[in-house]
Amino acid sequence: MRNCLVLSVSFTFVYTAYLAIQNLQSSLNQEANLGVVSLSVLYGTIIIFGTQAPIFIKFIGAKRVLVLAWVIHIIYTASNFYPTFATLIPSSALLGAIAGPMWTSQGIYITAAGEKYAALQGVSSEGALHAILSKFNGIFFMFYEITQITGNMISSFVLSASSYNTSSGVDHRICGPNDCPFVSAGNVTSKIEEPERHVVYILLAIFLSCNICGLLLTLFGLPHHTEVRGESTSVFKDMASCFKMSVDKRMLLLLPLFMAQAMAVGVLYADYTK
Description:
Elements: H1 2-28, H2 34-49, H3 53-60, H4 62-79, H5 85-120, H6 126-159, H7 197-221, H8 235-246, H9 249-272
């Protein structure tokens, strides 16, 4: 149970920062659509490197993968202090490359913690073990879903100190996606007013502190587990097993749901949050 809580809290710290930054990317980095491009690179890299997760974990271990992931999250957050294509795109690619191994390591730790807890409780039946694993996953994702609340609350409180959020008495009787008071005739590109830069720096500093807290908690609070390194199999066998699973009929039937969710999330993060 302890390992489950340590892992959950460390993810809460890190993803409080990451999800809030993700929600603000398209608004804070509008120049040349840098924010949207960086998110596209990030998630595109996840697709490319996601199948290599077993190889990462086999060679460096699950805990080291998590520690490396948090270090890259720190780099990603730091790159937002000076967002350019030369800083934000490489850090986004790094973050995407480590995301697959990171989530796989999370699953390994939660499963290992559940199995250890079941052994301590003297549970032997498969049904009871599944109930414990469901409980541990429920605890973890409760903490994870909270991060959208905590991250957006921090963003709201900090940005409210900026003139970015001041009220205006002007009545703009305009409505609709192509009717914005900041656009001229013939141009449907919205101009979103950016907050003062020093306020953004304060916000990013808070998120950077959250990342560091998550790193320290994982580094000193989460033990190594030799059993989570996986079986001794060849790299090619690992890659073949991942490919075999990806073309499984049941997995292919889930693809339309994945694509629909991806489109909805893309609109939410890239456009709606503006």
